[in-house]
Amino acid sequence: MKKIILILILSAGLFVSCTELEVTPTSFVTKENFFITQDDAIASVTSVYASLSLDPGEQSLFGRNLYFLTDMASDYAAAGVSATNPQVRALSSLTHDATSDRVQVAWRQIYAGINRANVAIDNIPKTAATDVVKTRLINEAKFIRALLYFQAVRLWGGVPIVLHEPTSIQVESLKSNRATVDQVYTQIISDLTDAEALPSTYTGTNVGRATSGAAKAILAKVYLTKKDWPNAILKAKEVINGGYGYALFENFADIFDKTKKNGKEHIFSVQFESNQAGNGSSGSTFQSTSFTGFTATEPADIISDVALFYDIYATGDTRRDASYVKQLVNPATGALYTFPKPLFKKYLDLNNLATPSNVAINFPIIRYADILLSLAEAINEKDGATLEAHELVNQVRRRAFAKPISTPNVTVDLVGLTTVQLREAIREERKKEFVQEGQRWFDLVRWGTLVTEVKKVTAKNSVSARNNLYPIPQSERNIDPIGLPQNDGY
Amino acid sequence: MKKKLNIYSLVILILLSIGINAQNTKPLIQSRLDGTVIDDITNEPIVGATIAIKGITHSVISDAEGKFYFQTGQRFPYILVVSYIGYKKKEVIADGSPIIISLKKDLQELNELVVVGYGTQKKKDITGSVASVPKGNLSQVTSSADNLLRGAVSGVVVTQSSGRPGATSSVRIRGGNSITGGNEPLYVVDGILIYNDNSNGTAGVSNAGAGVNVLSTISPADIESIEVLKDASATAIYGSRGANGVVIITTKKGTKGQDNISYQGYFGFQRVSKKLDLLNASQWASLRNDVQASIGQAPSFTPEQIEALKTSGNYDWQSAAFRTAPVQNHQLSFSGGDDRSRYAVSAGFFDQDGVVIGSDFKRISLRANYERNYSQNFKFGVNANYSNSASNGIANNAGGRNPNPLVAVLYQPPVVPIKNADGTYNFTNNPYATAVNGIIANPINDLENTINKTQINRILTSLFGEYKVNRELTAKVAVSGDVIDTKQNYYAPSTTGTGAGTKGLASVGNRLVSSVLNENTVNYNTHFGDDHKFSALGGYTLQYTKGEVVNAGANSFVNDVNSYNALQDGVAVKPYSEAFESVLKSWLARANYSYKGKYNLTVSARADGSSRFGSKSIWGYFPSAGFSWNITDEDFAKNIKGVDDIKLRLSAGTTGNQEIGNYLSLASIGSVNYSFGGTVQTGLTPTRLANPDLRWEKTTQYNVGLDLSLLDRKVNFVFDAYYKKTNDLLVNVPVPLISGYSAVLQNIGGVENKGIEIGLNTENLKTENFSWNSNFVFSANRNKVLEIGNGVDQFFPVVPNGTLLQQQPVTVKVGLPLGTFWGYKSNGIFQTQEEINTQPKINSLANTKIGDRRYVDTNGDGVITATDKGDLGSSQPKFVASFSNTVSYNNFDLQFNFQGSFGGKIFNALNQQLEISTLGTNASTALLDRWTPTNLSNEIPRATSSPLGIITERYIEDGSFVRLKTITFGYTLPKSISSKIGTKSVKLYVSAENLITWTKYRGFDPEVSSYEQNNLYPGIDFGAYPNSKTFITGLNVTF
Prior knowledge:
The complex is a heterodimer of chains A (490) and B (1039).
Chain A: H1 2-17, E1 29-30, H2 38-53, H3 61-72, E2 77-79, H4 86-92, H5 101-123, H6 131-156, H7 171-174, H8 181-195, H9 212-225, H10 229-241, E3 266-270, H11 286-290, E4 301-303, H12 306-309, H13 318-323, E5 324-329, E6 336-344, E7 363-367, H14 368-383, H15 387-400, H16 419-433, H17 440-447, H18 450-455, H19 474-479
Antiparallel strand pairs in A: 2-4, 3-7, 5-6
Chain B: H1 2-16, E1 32-39, E2 50-53, E3 59-61, E4 67-71, E5 78-83, E6 90-94, E7 99-103, E8 113-116, E9 119-122, E10 130-132, E11 156-160, E12 169-173, E13 186-189, E14 192-195, E15 223-229, H2 232-235, E16 246-251, E17 257-272, H3 281-294, H4 303-309, H5 317-321, E18 325-337, E19 341-353, E20 360-373, E21 378-392, H6 405-411, H7 443-449, E22 451-468, E23 473-492, H8 497-500, E24 505-528, E25 532-555, E26 571-595, E27 599-610, E28 619-630, E29 643-657, E30 668-676, E31 679-686, E32 697-710, E33 715-734, E34 743-766, E35 770-787, E36 794-795, H9 802-807, E37 810-813, E38 820-823, E39 826-829, H10 833-838, E40 853-855, E41 870-874, E42 879-889, E43 892-902, E44 905-907, H11 909-914, E45 956-958, E46 961-972, H12 975-980, E47 985-999, E48 1028-1038
Parallel strand pairs in B: 1-7, 13-16
Antiparallel strand pairs in B: 1-4, 2-3, 2-5, 5-6, 8-9, 10-15, 11-12, 13-14, 15-16, 17-18, 17-48, 18-19, 19-20, 20-21, 21-22, 22-23, 23-24, 24-25, 25-26, 26-27, 27-28, 28-29, 29-32, 30-31, 32-33, 33-34, 34-35, 35-42, 36-37, 37-38, 38-41, 39-40, 42-43, 43-46, 44-45, 46-47, 47-48
Helix pairs in contact in B: 3-4, 6-7
């Protein structure tokens, strides 16, 4: 019997001793074992870029979500029948309020990206990366951080400035008051100035990273938005003359040709690759929401008014048929199909209509044509309608009409306009040039013409001065009503 | 013959032993009566029985051989009153000496042993709230053990997620305590602790749809008894896993005596219990014309065509999805035992086809248990269960309006043919949908040809050794293992809606979870004199769980021949793998003290250390105390007429909940990809903030109970009232988004549950040939969120469906129960432009037309915005009740069982979508009453193209129901016949399940929850598998 007791005790003891309560996860990395190697540092910055193109369970920031705010809520775009989210429809009719989920998601996505940048900037110094790589990676993170704050300050005005990763989970310590618009711009300029030290080009599997040219180009747009004309001119000229090799594509449609991505006109683009988001999608949802097949069903993203925004292109302007498609050959039947209304075309991959969520067309953040038109705008505002300003606009026009870009062309060129006329001309060019490129609402707000322009579209007659800013998301104000006062009109 | 011999020899023994057992008290007169008290069945002597002569106070006690004698002055005949604990009291007329008195065992006596945590207790001594599932409930036709709890025990609410064979269900004992953590009870199967985590029934394969109930791996026919532990006194011994209640399942064991072979089998069929009323072809054509008119299109159907569609060209897609489906079950068992060993071996086969085409459930189960008395002091045993279940279920679609092919079937325009003239599926002739790669999705084809198979192999086994050190002390070591191996196979062929776009979509996945449990307990039983009984339990247990998940998929196949078996022939989609482990160490102790059987005190405590919690709070401590008072043992209450027992129970204690998932206290780094130079590269970033303070959810529970037995225990009444408060609730607390995070899991919330429970068990009639017993169970629970932290008093859980998510149908709000629906109140229909111009609108003035729905502007600000939404009721029933009856007459017996649930709401999202008019989908017949200029409906709006689903009280429907859940009529062959055919007993029966349901609910069935066990958005009906009526005939034979 003693034996049995012994066996019982032994078998009990066997299990008692062998296991600890501290269980180390084996299938995911924790904070403790991250930020050690150079590869860790690189991966952390890759995640900063990914905040632009990927948000599991949501449409990504530049994969469409920001489009609701910067395009659908402007004049030319609207929510079609297939847009079933009432919040999207509300943005289209400018009747949205502080509970808008799209506004909240944009806010979240922007700050999630800022936090990733903060995490990278805070932690990369302690990794084993070389100093050169460390500096470059930190400046890349600062570039994205500045880009995101630049979106935020234009969308909401003075927003909270967060520059470090959270160190506590207590809600109080995670709050931060709204800063002033000037403070946000100071931060943006500081980050972008650091980012000017970035390499001017990359090769191989680094193409698409932020460059010094990209930093200067965004700086030019920042100064333009601040109406700091001299600095806008200075930075735009550095982009043009800085030896970066930027130029306009001869063919406008090439800008959205996935085989020509990161070409000479692309200064900085959000990269979308096939299967980039996993599960067979790229993270860009524009194609599935602009094209619903060869049917009369209206897609979610449509042109608001054909007369005001499609019929305006002059004969020969290639931008119309590169931006919109009225007819398309149905590959299944071989027959030409005519859509009831022109569809948006820039993000349609006509070779890949079957898997619309896996389209590898990049989203241009800033391209050379934008720098030319921004410089023209700054010069015109500062010095009037100079020849230089005319020439900049004319380069963009010549390309649009498929003419040699640097050769004056009597049928296309604008000549001898007054400052007011040139201002109007630049605005028309931008409207035609940047369809679906996240520019229109920012342009209209910068020019102070949002209300008058948007009112021209009947279904958008709810627009008012409040729409020059978006509401601070209600969910944020629920947590911090004092630090986050609401914008006027919401 | 043998029995008679025994009796004769006993009589002789009695005669011989006259005078041996002298009586101590002084006799009144020198007259003598000798006697023996025996058990009426075993004829074994009963030791310690009290024998009194009626009318005088004098009494004697039977000795070690059951013998007694009187020296008395009474003359024959006189009446003896004989009583003994566990036996029915008996009065016999003594008219001569010697006398043999046989006593009948009283099965309803409080002496009955009840299974409790880590042991058994006499019912009389129990202080907590413990209820047993009546035996009648255990014989129901069901694929899963948790369904046996339904309506069986007060305080338990079982909600099946759907009518799918092998479907998951959620079990709530006294309401849900947790917001984000698990709310399912702990199951203890033959001593093995199992949390019924339905995620174990899925390998995470994309589109695979609803999971398979892991408990369905245990054959219900193997179950001997189920006990439900409800209050803290009973559950605290399970510490951090006791807060949601404990269900103890004991499987059938062999007994000493003859070997038995028994067969139990049934065969039957099921039919869908209800179909929805949808428009026919003609009605739909005119709806489409109205929709077209609303957007300025020319009508596609002429009046002549609409008329013609009344007679031909109508296709009933809904009926094509349903079928009459067979179900069968066979169970063969061998059991028996001798003086030293007991065994039971069984094999079962269950096969159920679903009422929706393409769905089924099969299970093979094997079980063996063996127990051996190795010596007088040592015994050991083994329990082994193996089961293999395979289930085909309805796969999910991409989501949105169309969560699965069953919903897609309902949406199909009735003018579209299901099949072509040649019998093949129609993939082209449908002008109302878009072709993808030449295929227009045909949901009947999707149901039939999409492969969505889940196979679960489960091994559940335990070994134990028990050593009796001496009369008082017993030590036990048990080791058990639970292995769940789940394999999922999914293939959507290129002809299906899901597979067309990607040219076939395949996915396979495996989840292997194994858990090893070691329990070491010591039991000590003693008494001090006759009045003080004391017992104690101490133990140490350790459970280690490890899991691995892997899944992979591919698309773009050249053809559909290889299905999911050749991923390499397609283009890979991102694979997934994961591993996790967790450890739970526990110390446990319990002590019971009983004074004269009148006053019973139980205290218990458990200390649990769990790897799931933050480094600062690994250990949690869970004490409880319970007290019970058997009032009828007091002198003042002993002889109340008609009252047999009154017992009062009081208990209080704390239990915990650790079902929060693994590693949540750590800061995890997740991968997010981006591409440079055309190459996708892995980015890594923190996805969660660390919370080293993450700790247990603690539930403090108070219970008052009253047990009453009346009229010779013909009426048994149990009443319980309880209050439970759960603190430190784990809530994903919303944090400012500027932190880069949306929420952090923190212990911050509070929820309370309070309620009453009544169980009433009565023997209504009993004659020699006829008996009628009934069991009534009632419970009412009130749930309330007390706190969700950080000054926030409301949040909207993210419902995982695009269409529902935007509506935010469910809210968690302080002061309201979990599962509260939140939405607008509607207010009729706009009938005039004047009303539109002056009254609040949900859309802009330009977009609101006559015939649109009006909503109530609750805050009076002149417009309808989200702030006008309010409480539309909760999915939690106000009370549930069931009423079960067993009637038997000679060899016939009839069992019937009514179940009811009252006051719970259901968000009928399917109906909401079916009341939406579009150009391409069918709709509910409710739209026949739609507003038109000639039909000024104030209920149903005009036809428009794809109006948005807006949540209003119209779609938050009353989910109350009463149903005849089961009715079974059986006939047992008379012994004379059954023995002739070489059997011990033969029973034949017919049975029907869900035969009649009384409900106002408009969906398929009010017992529904599309999101399964989820506690945040229960009671949503969107594409759940419909319930069925089942009719079976069965046979039970014992050889």
